[in-house]
Amino acid sequence: MTGTLTPTASGLGDGLHVAIIMDGNGRWARRRGLPRTAGHRAGGKAVRRAVEAAPEIGITTLTLYAFSADNWQRPAAEVGALMQLFERHLRDETPRLHDNQVRLSVIGRRDRLPPRLVQEIGTAERATRSGRRLHLRIAVDYSARQAIAATAARLASVPASLAGFTRQLNRTVHSVPAAPDVDLLIRTSGEQRLSDFLLWECAYAELHFTRRLWPDFNGDDLAAAVADFRHRERRFGGVSPRLAAV
Ligand code: IPE
Ligand code: IPE
Ligand code: MG
User: Fold this and answer.
1) What is the SS3 string spanning the chain?
2) Residue 243 lies in a domain
3) Domain containing 185: what range?
4) Is 71 a catalytic residue?
């Protein structure tokens, strides 16, 4: 493959792409003696806080990991509650997203989701299509490896540049518009792994791990992670200008 991986045009300016593995809802609930679903509900409020804080701190694409392809293995009652929560959140939050000029995409597979949720996703995506302040991507039934494999299968007979592959990968996961590479990947709850999230897009992402459980995460935590990111030196395989001068 040839070509460089330049950010894809989203019409949203050239701010940061921040991705978050929102982890720790279950532990948050357990510490309070509550059912896991109470943790997921509290996690929903943290999503709203992150979305509201993001544009103010220079984020133009925010990708949130809400449900992985492997999460289908969880107890049916938890999965069912999560699907209902997604549906309700989409319905309730869409007017606010539209008012705040946030464009929504739900990335991942759609063929295994409840039909009513798929319908709600389509409605929310259409209703927020004009948003130019923030591209919010919520990953539901998402697996980076499945997405990469499906994209490779589609392109099997066509020689693809890295940029062409990235464009097709965005189509595979229904990201409209296409998103640029991730600049900063955050994972909450103290875990330090990727859990099959954005493996292609995170090739040069800076990583930020925090012990904070997702339901406790707020706009200040997001701002602190971005402030820390702004002090990092990104070399992309090159040489630091500081060192090159020596
Ligand atoms: C993240 O929180 C939300 C989802 C994966 C849906 P968890 O539910 O994984 O919370 P922990 O890891 O059990 O605390
Ligand atoms: C990753 O969290 C998926 C989401 C946050 C949606 P998990 O809690 O499912 O990941 P593992 O099992 O700890 O790796
Ligand atoms: Mg977890």
Assistant:
1) CCCCCCCCCCCCCCCEEEEEECCCHHHHHHHCCCCHHHHHHHHHHHHHHHHHHHHHHCEEEEEEEEEEHHHHHCCHHHHHHHHHHHHHHHHHHHHHHHHCCEEEEEECCCCCCCHHHHHHHHHHHHHCCCCCCEEEEEEEEECHHHHHHHHHHHCCCCCCCHHHHHHHHHHHCCCCCCCCCCCEEEECCCCCCCCCCCCCCCCCCEEEECCCCHHHCCHHHHHHHHHHHHCCCCCCCCCCHHHHCC
2) no
3) 16-232
4) yes
Q: Which residues line ligand 2 (CB under 6 A)?
A: 21-23, 65-68, 71, 191, 193, 195
Ligand 1 contact, 201 CB (< 6 A): no
Domains in the chain: how many in total? 1
pLDDT digits (tens, 9 = 90+) for 172-231: 999 999 999 999 999 999 999 999 999 999 999 999 999 999 999 999 999 999 999 999
Query: pTM for the complete prediction?
Result: 0.95
Q: Which atom of ligand 2 is the closest one to the Cα of 195?
A: 14
- Establish whether 25 is a catalytic residue: no
